[in-house]
Amino acid sequence: MTPAEFKTVRESLGLSAQWLATHWSVSLRSIRNWEDGTSPIPPNISAELTAIEDYVDDAAERMIEAIESVPQNPQDLAIYEVPRVDADSPDIYPASLHRAIGARIRSALPEVTLEYR
């Protein structure tokens, strides 16, 4: 993973550099060094970021399939509920990551309404 890919994936997942630093128990400076190419990205870090991206893509795909499998009238559009703040997030990931899932769903199915929980 290149530094540009690392930062692009991180940002597309809605993950802050600070959140990743805390999650991985590294300094914020380490994240910045990986993103600007000053330091090489450790393979385990690259693999974990890819795993998080896969989690988001899989979650979005499952939701898209579930929404598409239910016949809907045009007036009854599906709603994907996203957490407003981290305290509302159902797992270890921040609310911003769940909003990234919502964005992927909305991109594939523009008729889907996003709502806060």
Looking at how many chains there are and whether they match, the oligomeric state comes to single chain
Q: How much helicity do the residues have?
A: 55-70%
Radius of gyration: 16 Å
Total number of helices: 5
Structural class: mainly alpha
Q: Which segments are poorly predicted (pLDDT under 50) over 5 or more consecutive residues? A: none
Question: Tell me about the biggest sheet?
Answer: 2 strands, parallel
Major β-sheet strand ordering = 1-2
Series of H and E elements? HHHHEHE
What is the beta-strand fraction?
5-15%
Principal-axes geometry comes out as elongated
Average pLDDT = 87
How would you characterize the overall build of this protein?
By secondary structure, the protein is mainly alpha-helical. The protein has a two-stranded parallel sheet with strand order 1-2. Strand 1, helix 5 and strand 2 form a beta-alpha-beta unit. Helix 2 packs across helix 3. It is elongated. The relative contact order is 0.15.
Write a concise keyword list for the protein shown above.
elongated, 117 residues, 58% helix, mainly alpha
SSE inventory with pairings:
Blueprint: H1 3-12, H2 17-24, H3 28-36, H4 43-69, E1 79-82, H5 95-108, E2 113-116
Parallel strand pairs: 1-2
Overview in brief:
This protein has 117 residues and is mainly alpha-helical. The chain has helices spanning 3-12, 17-24, 28-36, 43-69, 95-108; strands at 79-82, 113-116.
